Amino acid sequence: MLNNMTQEQEKAAQEFYEENGYWVSDIVFTAEEVAEMRAAHDRIWTLDYDGDGFPLWEWKPDDKPNRLRKIDNAWWINDVVKNAVTSPKLGKLAANLMNSEEARVWYDQVIYKPGTGKGEQTSAGNVGWHQDYMYWQCTDTTNLVTAWVALQDTDLNNGCMSVIPGSHKWGLLNSDGFFNEELEAVKRQMEVEAKPWREEPLILKAGQVSFHHSLTIHGSRQNFSNDPRLCVVGHYFPKGMAYEKKQNVDNIRLLGPRPKQGDLFNNEYFPLAYSASEQA
Fold it and tell me: Which end of the chain is more exposed for a tag (fewer CB within 10 A), N or C?
């Protein structure tokens, strides 16, 4: 299990992250916590919610069993997910990578990549190459980090995420490809032929967490196993992040009915996952 990191370990993690745009932790969540999050998945996909609310973006059952399932802000409707994404265990790691005294939850995602078995190759369920910040251009910083929690041993066989090391230094590209399952087409769209493109698969044990910068290009391919690939994802931002009017993003409305340039994202919709002052 991941205990408190030493200052030397924190510095090494920061340096690796700053150079490569991603970092992989040791195991953060226990087997019992992973089992609880897997059970939360089961409840969420049957629309069995805690409380009377609903997530920011809701999945509805359909007739496409190979389709990727994703909802946003499951912490609003599931207590286990809430406890996970607001956990200081994740918050402190995220704050360290952002070199911030605090980490707040931007939003979360619960993602289900269906298994296709050992049959023919298909693009169904792929996540196209993209940069998270393409969808977050209402902030005054790109210094946000994503924490991807593996809820099973995850590798190329069951569709692990891959990142392009160093791509966070390339700026914001034409990378609106999350739901485009044709990864090579998305790569051409981003016009990165002259860049040092190297795909790094993030092989994780259950309970491990990978972190990546908001500009790091990432995606995932087919799940060849018979079981779904499950994850819980927390997106975090540093202390003092404010609204900047560049794009119409769902999170803007969480600032209230009349948001204005410079408003801080610091209300109850963006819970504090870690604060160095509170831990002192």
Answer: C
